[in-house]
Write a structure and sequence with these properties.
single chain, 100 residues, alpha+beta, four-stranded mixed sheet, 3 helices, globular
């Protein structure tokens, strides 16, 4: 079985979405995060983060490349730095970082 890889991460081109992640094996483009929302990476406090994580734990079923997973681990991750959260997400789900 071929390992899934992240080949691009950046600003989304979709209305009302903040980020986009492009994966290969399988080829998948996932737009996620509400544009303009005050997330943990934007300075939301720990109680807001805790409430979000509790409310959205149900989103963590099935495909780890879904928007729910990315929002949960990247925009609401342990760190206030999106790159640190992205790295943690990739490691957690054994996804290779192939960004150039």
């Amino acid at each position: 079985m071929t390992m899934t890889s992240l080949i691009y991460f950046g600003k989304s081109t979709r209305d009302k979405k903040r980020f986009v992640a492009v994966f290969d094996n399988p080829r998948r483009t996932t737009h996620f995060g509400l544009l303009g929302a005050n997330t943990y990476i934007d300075g939301a406090d720990k109680s807001v983060r805790s409430n979000y994580l509790k409310r959205h734990a149900v989103d963590l079923r099935g495909d780890k490349l879904k928007a729910g997973y990315l929002s949960y681990y990247v925009t609401w991750g342990k760190h206030r730095d999106v790159e640190k959260n992205l790295t943690s997400y990739l490691k957690r789900f054994n996804i290779k970082d192939k960004r150039a």
